[in-house]
Amino acid sequence: MHQDSILLATFVVALVAAFLGGIIARMVRLPPVVGYLLGGLAVGPFTPGFIGDSHAMSQLAKVGVMFMMFGTGLHFSFDDLMAVRGVAVPGALLQTALGTLAGCGVGLALGWPLEAGVMLGLSVSIASTVVLIKNLADAGLAGTDGGRIATGWLIVEDLLTVVILVVLPVLFGPGEVDAAAAAMGLGAALAKTALFVGLMFVVGSRALPHMLIRIARFCPRGLFQLAVIVVALGTAVLAAWLFDLSFALGAFLAGVVVGGSKISHRVAAEAIPFQDLFSIIFFAIEADMPLCAGDILGLAESEAQIEAALALLGRGRG
After folding, report:
1. What is the pLDDT of residues 253-276, one digit of tens each?
2. What is the pLDDT of residues 217-251, one digit of tens each?
3. Considering only CA atoms, which of 3, 18, 1 is closest in space to residue 285?
4. How far is Cα 100 from Cα 117, in angstroms, rounded to an integer?
5. Which one, of 273, 291, 318, 304, lies nearest residue 132 by Cα?
């Protein structure tokens, strides 16, 4: 196959595989997401046959994350988040702490280093925001009390991940642990997060809806669709580049501030086709990511240890 068309071929093959997998999943009464994952696994680099440009497609999968989180934010107001904080905050903290301790204990029992056990525990304890939100939406549960609690729970975990990513390199990196450096890094991460959230609710909540309303009033539909895409993806990328936050959190907050405006229903309608398309790409392409856990689990010394760790990861993600 010509190298100039490898990305296009990967894109088309991934969509076809996801479509066929989704049809088969529905025939056996399983969620379509299961079919998307199996379809992506079938055409991925870890199975015989077609091997496409998985690196480039993983970038498109991130677009799916942004659109899904933007759509979730459109239907999840700040008042909803505050209403579930009594359950979401302690629940997410407790889940992460217990999961990390359990994973660390298993790792130590298998003879792994402490840092490997901690990484295993964190991998098990922090749930996939995208997978759970997609399942809630497909089941029509996103707007229920349980759905709002689950979404708030996941947002707390996303914020907690920011702290974890700052602390881990300091604790387990080369050299002595510098408490002052750890405190400074954590303080900087929290300050960036607070600054971004503040800007979104003080400036973004006024500027973004106003811009979209003006474009909807005076510009053709195509330009309005482009504006919605720019708001969703642009905010996510700025959150990552300028504030070192996740794409998912940036897109979610963009959806929250736009969702509180009177144009939110039209924005949601225009975003749905892109959200559905790229979310399917996400599940089809990222199906191969769990298999890469073998690189991390290379710290294990035997096949039995790897199988035990993968079994634990499967339980945690299920």
Report:
1. 899 889 888 888 899 888 888 877
2. 988 988 999 999 999 999 999 998 998 888 888 88
3. 18
4. 8
5. 318
Angle, in degrees to the nearest 10, between helices 179-199 and 247-259: 30
Arithmetic mean of pLDDT, 73-81 = 73
Quick one: which of 113, 249, 245 has its CA closest to 190?
245
DSSP string, 230-277: HHHHHHHHHHHHHH---HHHHHHHHHHHHHTSTTHHHHHHHHHHHHHH
Torsion angle of the four alpha carbons 202, 205, 210, 211, in this order, in degrees rounded to the nearest 10:
100
Cα dist from 214 to 19, 75, 174, 227, whole Å: 38, 22, 53, 11
* CA geometry: angle 187, 65, 198, nearest 5 deg: 35
Nearest CA to 131 among 56, 216, 65?
Answer: 65
Q: Give the per-residue SS3 of 134-192.
A: HHHHHCCCCCCHHHHHHHHHHHHHHHHHHHHHHHHHHHHCCCCCCHHHHHHHHHHHHHH
Radius of gyration of the chain (CA): 21
Q: What token pair was written down for 142?
A: 């996103």
Closest of 11, 12, 38 to residue 25, by C-alpha: 38
Q: Would you state the structure tokens that stand for residue 183, as one six-digit string? A: 């405190």
Return d(Cα 295, Cα 264) in angstroms, integer.
Answer: 43
For residue 252, the tally of other CB atoms under 10 A from its CB is 31
Euclidean distance between CA atoms 36 and 20, whole angstroms: 8
Euclidean distance between CA atoms 63 and 313, whole angstroms: 26
Q: How far apart are CA 110 and CA 291, in angstroms?
A: 20
- Burial of 57-75, coded b for 16+ CB within 10 Å and e otherwise, reads beebbbbbbbbbbbbbbbb
Pairwise CA distance, residues 225 & 75, whole Å:
18
Inter-helix orientation angle 264-285/54-74, to 10°:
150
Residue pair 247/63 in contact by the 8 Å Cβ criterion = no
pTM, two decimal places: 0.70
Residue 304, pLDDT score:
42
